[in-house]
Amino acid sequence: MNEYVIRFTAVNPDELDAEATERIEGAAQAIPGTRPMGRVLIDPLTRRIEAEFAIEVAQAMAEAARDGGRLAKEILLAARMPDARLVEMSVRMGESSNTD
To answer: The whole model's pTM is what?
Structure first.
């Protein structure tokens, strides 16, 4: 299995409350197969959300991108931000990835 790090940015159409960061962090920990990484950044003025998590996939980066996008949306849904729109996502190999 290879570890990939998914970093995403989303924009929420509604205002972000004071608990938004905690909800995103909790959702990233609660969703099976994800490992939160770094801090969640919330900008209440622009309603932007930035978060990063790691996942393991058996195949290649294309699989990580597909699963990472789906899991990012699941994190937003679990954090009670169903209308948040993903506007950017990056995928990179994690440090513990096998290169064999």
So the answer is: 0.88
